[in-house]
Amino acid sequence: MPANAWAAAEVNAASLGSDTLPQLSVPWKPKAKQEYTGLAGLVAGIAKAVYTIAAPIVTAAPGMIMLGALFSAIVAVWAHYLLFEFVDGLIAGAANGPDLGHFGAAMTIPELQAGLASASWPAPDLICYPIYLLQYSLTRDVVGMGGILGFISIIPLFAIWWERKVAGRIQSRTGPMRVGGWHGWAQCIADGVKLLTKEDLCPADADRPLFKLAPYLAFVPAILAFFALPFGTYWVFRELDVALVFVLAMLSVEVFGVILAGWASNNKWSVYGAMREACQMVSYEIPLGLALLIPIMAAGTLSLSEIGEMQSGGWLSWIVFRNPFTFVAAAAYYVASLASCKRAPFDLPESESELVAGFHTEYSGFRWSLFFFAEYAAMFVVSGLAVILFFGAWYSPLPISWADSLGDSLFAKAAKGVLFAGPIWFIAKCVFLLYVQLWVRWTLPRIRIDQVLYSCIQVVLPLMMVVMLGQTLYELLVPAGSIVFNIFNVLLALIGALVMLGFVGIAAYGFMSGRRLVGYLAVDLKPGS
C-alpha cells in the first residue's frame, strides 16, 4: 500500500471516536474466571513468582544469558567425558585379583576410595559412592540417553525459532520479537506449552489405534538415529561397524509414520499427502543411497567413526575435495536429503497451499508437534551424515597434527576441542547445513509432483550412476598422492574455500545491515529501497 494511503487510513481511524465503533457480541455466555486452588494454585503461584523475578533479568541481558547457558552446557558435557575417562583410568590401573565389586563391578569401594584419595579428590569417602555407579555400562547408557534426549529436545526448539527469524529476514520482517524479550527467544517454549494443553482430537471416522500410533512411528526412529551418530572420536552412544546402514534404516522407517498418519485420518487431503510422501521417498532413496556409496568407496568402511578419522588431516583431507566425483556426490546427497526430510522445494506431503496441511491435517496438540520434532531431528541427522561423510566430520580445517605440541594438560585438551577437533566442530557444521535448508525453503518455490519425479528419475539418478562409475575408475586408476590426485584435490579445496568465504561475506553483510531491510514492512529501510 502506498505511504499516502497508509496516512489516510490512520487519519480516518483517528477521526472515529470509541463511541462510533461497532460493539460485537457472541451468542454464548462468557466463561467465568477460573480460580486455581490447592496444588494447581501452588504451581500457578510459583510460576508467577519465577516469572516476576526472572523476566527483568532475562530482558536486561538475554545475549549474555544465552552465551552463558551455551558455555555451561559445553562444560557440563565435557565434565562428564573427563569423569568417565578418569573412572576408566582407575579401572585399568586397579589390581583387583579375585575380589570384585557388587554385580561384577571392576573395583570395590575401598579401591575406589584409594584411587580418589591418590588423585586428591575432596571427601573421597563420600564421593566414591555416586562414582561407583559409573563402572556399570547401564549407568553410562542412562546418562548418554539423557544427553541425547536433551539435545533432541533443544534442536527442534532452536530450529523452529531460527526458521521464523530466517523467514522474516528474507521477507523483510523481523520475525518473533516479543515473547521473552530479545528476538522472541521464548516463542517456541510458549508454543510448546500451548500444544501440551490443547485438546487431543481424533476424527470420528479415523482408525483410532493407527491414528494415535503414527506420530510416534515418525518420531521414535529419528531419536534412534542419534544413537549411532558419532559427534566425535569417542562421542557416540553405540559404536557400530554398520552405523551408516543403521542410521539410514531409521530414517527410512520415519516415512511409515507419515503414510500411516495420512491413511488413518480418513481424510482425502491427508491421503494425498501420504501418497506423495511414499512416491517421493521411494524415488529419492535410490539416488541418496548411491550418493552415500561414493564416500564409502573412498573410505572402504561403513563405520562412521572410521570415516571421520580419515579426515583429520585438515581442509585438503576432507572427502568432498578428494576428487570431482565426491564433490558432485555431496551436492546430490544434499538435494536428495531435502526430499527425504520433506523440505522445500520437496515439501509436497504437506503442501499447505493445496492440501490444507497434508498428512497431518487432522492432528492437533502434542501429536501434531511430534511430526515437527521428527522433521527437525531428521534434518539434523541428514546434516550430520553429510558432515561425517563429506565435510571433515568433527575435525576443523586445521590438521590435527598441529595439536601434538600442546601436550595433555586440561588446558591443552580444551584448546584441541575448540581449535582442532571435537563435538563443537561437528555441531557447528551441522547447524550451518541446517541453516542452508532453512534458506532454501524460503528462497525456492515448491515444485509439482511430476517435476519431483522428473528431477529424480531423469536427472539425479542418471547423474549418480555416472558419478559412481567415475568414482570406481578414479579409485582404480588414480592412486592417492599422485600428481593428478593432488591437482584435483587442491583445485576443489580452493573452490570450497571460495564458497565458504562467500557465505561468510553474506553473513557479515547481513550482520552489518542490522534491521535495515527492503519493503514497506521494514523498520529501517536500506539505501535505495
Number of strands: 2
| Mean of all residue-level pLDDT scores | 84
How many H/I helices? Answer: 17
Unreliable sequence segments? 5-18
Major sheet summary line: 2 strands, parallel
How far do the termini sit from each other?
A: 15 Å
| Strand order, largest beta sheet | 1-2
How would you describe what is shown here?
By secondary structure, the protein is mainly alpha-helical. Helices cover 65% and strands 1% of the residues. It contains 17 helices and two strands. It has helices at residues 3-15, 38-60, 62-93, 109-118, 124-132, 137-170, 187-197, 208-227, 243-264, 268-299, 304-309, 324-340, 365-389, 410-419, 423-441, 449-477, 483-513, and strands at 516-517, 524-525. It has a two-stranded parallel ribbon. α6 packs parallel to α15 (423-441) and α12 (324-340) packs antiparallel against α13. The longest helix has 34 residues, at 137-170. Residues 5-18 have low confidence and may be disordered.
